[in-house]
Each structure stands twice: as C-alpha cells, then as structure tokens.
Amino acid sequence: MLRAPGAGWQWGAAASVLLALVLHTVIAWGARTPSFPFDEVVLLQYSKFLSGGEMPTPPRGAGYFPAWSVVMAPIWWVTESPAVAYRLAIALGVVASLATIWPLTRAVTRLGLAAPQATVVASLVMMMPARAVQSGYVTSEKMLFLALACTMLAALRLWERPTAPRAAVFAIAAVVLTTTHARAVVLLIACVLWLLLLALRSWRAALVGLAVAVPLGTLAFWSGGLLNQYLGGGFSQGEKVLETLRESRPSLLVRALVGQAWQQTAGSLGLVAVGLVVLVVLVWRELRRERAIGPACLLAAMLLGVAVLSVGRWASEGELYLASWRRLDAWLYGRYLDPVTALLVALGAAAVLRGAGRRVVGVALALTAALVGVTVLWLAPDAPTWGYVTPAHIPGVMPWFWTLPEATSETWPWGLVPSLTNDNRFWLLASLPPLALLAVLTAIGRIGRRGAAVLAAALLVVTAAGTLAATRATDHFQQLEGGRPALADEINRLQAAHGDALTVEFDRSCTPGSSNDAVVQNVLAYWIHPTTMGVTADRNASDAQITLGCDIWPEGSAAGARMLSDVHSDGYHAWVMPGPLQDELAAEGLLDPVAEPVAVP
Q1: Which of 152, 66, 75 is CA-nearest to residue 106?
Q2: Which of 110, 208, 254, 360 could form a disulfide with 356 if both were Cys (CB 3.0 to 4.6 A apart)?
Q3: pLDDT class for 4, splitting at 50, 70, 90?
C-alpha cells in the first residue's frame, strides 16, 4: 500500500480531474448535431415528451429505456430549439461523466489508495477513449456508467456493514441502473442474485434489499418497454441474443469473444487485463479464504452477464459475414462491455499504482500476448478492416482510426496478415501500447512511491494523447452522419412564414434508392419544429398540406400536388397539396413546373 500522499498527489488529483474535463469538452465540442438517428434522436424525442410536450412523431428503432430522457427533459423547459437542446444535452452528458469521478474515487479508496491517488485512477478511467468518446453523443452511456459506479460503491458499503438502510440504497441504485438501458437488466439480475447470497451473512439486509430491488426492478423494466409501446416505437432490444447463442457455430462465438476482448485490451493500455487478473484473485480470496460472496463476486457476475449478452448479440453469421452493410465494429463491439470493463480498468490501474508484483502483471502480459497473437493471426485476416465504423461502438481503439484503410469487399485483399506497414496494420499498431506497458511493468517489478507518481503521470499523458487522437474519428462521423436536413430547414422556414400552422406528413411507403426510411423519418421528425410531423402509410389518403416522400407520385400529380423545387434530403421531397399555401409558393416560383400529360398516339 502507498504511504500517505503528499502535496504532489493532491495537485496531481486536481490536475487529473481538470484534464478529464478538458478532454470530454474537446470531444463534446465537435458534436454539433445528432449523428445517431436512433440512439440519440429517439431519446431526445422522449425527453421532449417527458418535459410535458405533445406526443412526438412515432419513433423508429429497437426501443430505449427512459432514464436519460428524464434527466434531459428539463432542457426543453428553457428552449424549444432542437439545435440548442442538442448542445445542452451534450453539455449535460459531460457533467454526468465528470460526476462519475466521485463515486469511482470512493470505490477505488477501498482498494488501498488514499483519496488523491484514487481520484487520479478515477480520472484516468474517465479519460480513456472508451469513456471520453461517449461525450460526443447524446446516448445513455454516461448515465449508465454513473449509475453503475454508484451501484458498485453502494455494494462495497453494504458489504462493509450489511444494514437495512445500506441494502435499500444498494437496491435503489441497481433499479436506477436498470432504467438507463435494456442491457442493464443483466446487471440487475446479478445484483438480485448477490442479495440472495448476502442472506448467508445478514438475512435482514438481504430481505430489505430484495424487497426493494425485485418489485421496483421489475417495474422499471416493464415500464421502459411500455413507454416505447405507448409512444409508438415498439421495443425489440435483445430479442435475438439467446437464439444466436443457441444456433451460432462455436467458431463465430469465439470470433466475437476474441474481437471484443482485443478491443477492450487495446483500448485500455492493457490495464483491463491487469484488472481481470486482480479480479480473479479477489474472487478466489472471497470464495476460498473468506468463504463469502462479496463485491468481487458481484463484479465478476456482472462481467460474465454482459459478456454473454454482448457476444450473443454479435456472434452471428449475418452480422459478421453476410450483411450487405459490412461493419468493422460488429467484429469488435465494445459498447456493451465498456461500462463494466471500465471498473476492471480502475482495478488494474489501482493495482499497478500500489505496486503489483511481477506475478500479477506477468500473467496479464501473457494473456494479452496470447490474445494479440490470436487476433492478429486468426481474426484480423478475415475481418472487414475497411468496413463501416461507428466511434461510439468501438471507442477504445478510435485513436487508431487514422490507420483504417479505404476499400470494398471486392478490392480488399482477404487473408492479409497485419504488419506495421500494410493495409491491415490497424490491428498490430493498436496492439503495441498494451504489450509495451505490461512488458515494462513486468520488467520493473514492484514500484515505489516515486515510481507510482511517475507511472500515474505517464498514464495520464498517454491516455490524453489517445483520446485527442480519437477526435479524428468523432469529427469524421459527425461530418458523415450529422448535419441538419435541408428539407427540415425549408419546412421550418415555411412554418415561420405561415404562422406555424402547417400540417406535414411523412410517407413511410417511400424508400428512395438506398435510403433508410426509418433514419430519415427520425431525423426529419427531430428537426421539423414546432409542427409535429405526422406519419402515413398511404400518401394518397393523406390530408396534410405537405407530404414528404419520393419524387415520383402520379396520383399526387393528378390530384394537383406540386413538388418544392431543389429541396430534398436523402431522396425525400416535399409535395405541396392544392390550396392557399401552394398558390403562394407557386407565385414565389418555389414549385416545380406542372407536369404536362404525355400524349399517347
């Protein structure tokens, strides 16, 4: 254990928190508009409704739990502008990320570090690309990890003194965690099982915890799905996980597991491997020496549950090989695992700063070397390294985004083993930092007080550099997927000119070219303001003044509808029905010419 920290550690703690704030702010600064048409836009639409607004346009997507939307709801009390609301939501996410440092620090102090040292560890975790990149998006990830950190802190406090009030606090934290995302239900299950086993130590505390967690957790999960059904979006999160686990070939399961484990290791400088070794030691100590099911067992159960969920979600032939839209992030998906593995990173960082011996770090090095070998020689040659990447899905390796090649399935040299210079170099280059760090720590052995300070400073600098490098990926994604649709801006201009009294409907039956109608519907619904965009499956039966759909509409043309000139988004155009609005726009020269009927000889 490190001695009581001096002023250097206290200054270091303050500097690490400030550095974390700067990095999250830099990432957030580039987030100008929603770039997730589902994860971001749907949650924003829910928050608008929960703020007291009217029913939104029925969202498209797999469904999302409402906790983050509840937190964002007050934003709509101070602004009605979708652009301003988005920027405020991004800022709120940065606040949530920085707030996570507090419970994480309190938890890390239980590992034998003083508060300043624990603050450095917690800040380091939040500076990692896996956590900082999420500040560029209005998703549930920030609140999910904040709730998870609070839940683990509550578990540690409950284990230290198993009283009824502490059990109730732990149960409430687990329920709040459940409301952040559907995948958090596996974490709730782990918490409930842990409370059941806590009865071996204190049946009163266990009973109180179960009395709170089971009914409220069930209500949280049920109400999350019900809200999606009520707002017309439906809920299908996680439907195919068990089917994939049952039916997928073992090789697919192994590929998904290896890819996701490599992404976690490469994205944490190998600290997640150290944390895993330490976790195994702590679990063994609890089971063997203490004959108890303590917090380490709870964390292990959480890790196992979310790993099964994440592998089961992506280990299918359709996701990895047969999809027409080839995705690299499907091979490495990290977003499900990231919150739990962040706790392992904290465990690993605390261990090395306390002076973990060669045995612990050496085992982590061996595991990492084996994983890198399997990844580079077996996984990478078959992976679509050129495929589509969403930074929020594999944030840990986004510092290496610049190494990804541009190619297609037809031009890519399949079977290419990565080297330091070829087109598949991404895999090998991203593997070097964790191998280097763990090799150095293994060679040095235990470090003293001064060595711990030097190591902490080095980790902060390297992590900050990696996160800054990841901005290339987040900025590219914002440029590619973000922006305000021109069609929405034109509709808003027409609303402002006509007293916000227009009726607008989106034609779901239209799918122009390769456009995804669900994506376009969600994005237009968010940006069209203040009118709530309606939805129709039969534009011929629509009575709206403006119908958004394909550029060819024979029935509409026959009924006198005319299309706005030179305004479209993703193949969707605005058709203006006969009436005063059409007359005004025609007089202004804003409509396409009336189509002349073709004479048939």
Answers
A1: 152
A2: 360
A3: low
